[in-house]
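User: Can you write out an input/output pair for a complex, sequences first and structure second?

Assistant: Here is one pair. Inputs:
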Amino acid sequence: MKNNNIYNKIIGRLISGDLPEGEENGNPEEMEVMDQYQTIIEQSKNITFPEFSAEKGLIKTEYKLQKLNHNNKDFKLAFLKIAAVIVLGVFIAYLILQQLADRSSNQFIEIYVKKGEKLNMKLPDGNAVWLNSCSSIKYPSNFNGFNKRIEVTGEAYFDLRNNTNYPVVICANNNIINCSSAAFNIKSDSSASNTVILVEKGWITVSNPEIVKDYEIKEGEKATLATYFPLAVEPGYSQNELAWRTGKIIFDNTPLQTVASTLSEYYDVNIQIEGEIRYCQFSSQYVNIDCKTILNDIQLQFKPSIIEKNNQIVIKGADCN
Amino acid sequence: MDKHLLIERIKQSDKSAFNELFIHYYSRLCRFAYVILHCEHTAEEVVQDTFVKLWEKRKSISILGNLDSYLFVSVRNASLNSVKYASNRKNNFASDELMKEPESEPFNQEVFLKRLHIALEKLPEQCRIIYFLKNMEGLTQDEIAQYLNLSPKTIENQLKIAMLKLREMLYQYKHTFYNGYE
């Protein structure tokens, strides 16, 4: 027996169409093997198949299609009868429910937090909400059952873990968030029409007109919903993104560039950073500390020049010393 | 035949486009199903049902890429799912007469074809389908890859396996093949 290598080579040539016809000076050993394969291939072409008539097949297929349509019609009729009964029942139930709901008045409660202020409040069902500055929520006064609906603008943190029977539906920037038991942060920017959701505990589902089906966002995930990009979910987020509520700011070998953007956001100031210093790493932890103290710490560690003018703070430095 | 146009017309419930597609593909798909099922009747049933499904789903269907691929893969899957598949395979090809013939018998094409047929049946499913498309339907490797939604490398490997196995199973013919060179 020859080794498999030579067979492999020959078969490779055969199936790639590189046949030896007219190839006089081929290796005789190879030619022998080649001939065996070629006989097999050529004989394969002589294997006959039954005749399949497309015309007859088409007639049979037509018949099948007709039968199917017929069945569908029967089914549709039966279905319509049942559907009519159900729709009628549901409609009557809806009318009764609406009558009941009207009695308990359909008023909304709207809460708005001014610039520079924050608010911690409780919803009628006992769950807690934190509102950042320039944010608002709106919910019906009879906040219970299917009426657990909240509209949000700006940034808010919901702790809805004290939720028993009905899910809370939150609407932010056309996104609908369904939550049974979770704690999460919603930040929606209506001008850029994008919404960022951080789930700290539990899970929620989101949907919006751009996403076909509901999408589940789990504990520890960060979801970004924007009109130009329907949904992006990433695992993990920085605790500093929740600093507006907790007051805790943590830097752990964080480049000063990132530090500057975190501080800009948290203290609502404009911090610019110039020079190589932006790549220097800074570590520290703060709880409810003002911006000045943190800038002082940076000054002490890296000795940059910090200039404050026109509501803008510019940090400038060439290296990390 | 513009396949994209045909699909578009079928989507708009144009029955004549459907018929055109049917006539074009029917016998090829039947032969293909036959290779898997070994039963004329079942093969035809499977192909007809595939077309019925295509027509039923015409509005929601979106054929990504190749129409050939869509049809061949559908027929392949339907054939393999067919209830009759397993029993047919067992009944028809339990025979083991392949190796029994003495080596010195003169070459008889009829007998050889019969043996080749049996040998082909003994190939693994994928191997056999690919071998059939290549050597009986005369498709190129790239076409097969497209039809079955596989990589060309897989096709090549499967063909190599098929050839080696066939040669092994038809080993008693080695003298016949060797004659010309002795």
